[in-house]
Amino acid sequence: MTSTPSSQAPAAVIMAAGKGTRMKSDLPKVAHHVGGRAMVCAVVDACIEAGCERIVVVVGHGREHVESALAGYETVRFALQAEQLGTGHAVLCAREALEGVGVTAPVFVLAGDGPLIRASTLNAVLHRHASTGASATLATSVVDDPAGYGRVVRGLDGRFAAIVEQKNASPEQLKIREINPSYYCFAHGPLFDSLDKLGKDAVSGEYYITDVPAMMIADGGKVEVLDAVPPEDVLSINTPEHLAVVDKIYRSRSTAEAGS
Fold this sequence. Notes:
Elements: E1 11-16, E2 33-34, E3 37-38, H1 40-49, E4 54-59, H2 63-69, E5 76-80, H3 87-92, E6 106-111, H4 119-132, E7 136-142, E8 150-154, E9 160-164, E10 178-187, H5 188-197, H6 212-218, E11 223-227, H7 240-259
Parallel strand pairs: 1-4, 1-6, 4-5, 7-11
Antiparallel strand pairs: 2-3, 6-10, 7-10, 8-9, 8-10
């Protein structure tokens, strides 16, 4: 018998609807194996370890593979993103599955293709989020080569100002080494209030979750930033070669943890 989740317990939305066309496979990217199982399982495990009582996995392409891989998790629900309209749209698709979550409850928004995620990082984010009463808390990483990542722009006071995608970044912003690895924690109510007002990107026509923190600041909310993600953990998986590298790191880490 499963217990009813607390309305104030942390919840999570894991984005897992992408095709991953560069993987040269019909499988959705998050269903490819890392450590002998679908990589999305590692993200779900980190959320559970961080205390999430409800986890919504947003599925799309090849949904049956993702749902099969996560069939043994009692805390997981699924939401369908039938049309790929961006990360903001993906989270909106999870609204119904989050019914009953408290207005101020923390909701992680994470990528399903980041299996090197650590529960300790999520716990650090939760602590900052709760202790500051933030509308949103982002975990960032400082990397040697930020190419391809959204840059975290800070104001003169050192506080968060915006996330700027590489294609939109100025030459000065491209020099920023603090990047956005898609580790978000939002207050549930303000998250969906912002998503309801989110506009389409002028170029792609998609809705991006990266626009939400700056919107919250404009609405008088507080956004906290925590440089808490080890550079190794943000390695992206876009090709079979990337997958092999991450799999090796994941297995090495698992062996080290088992021996400690």
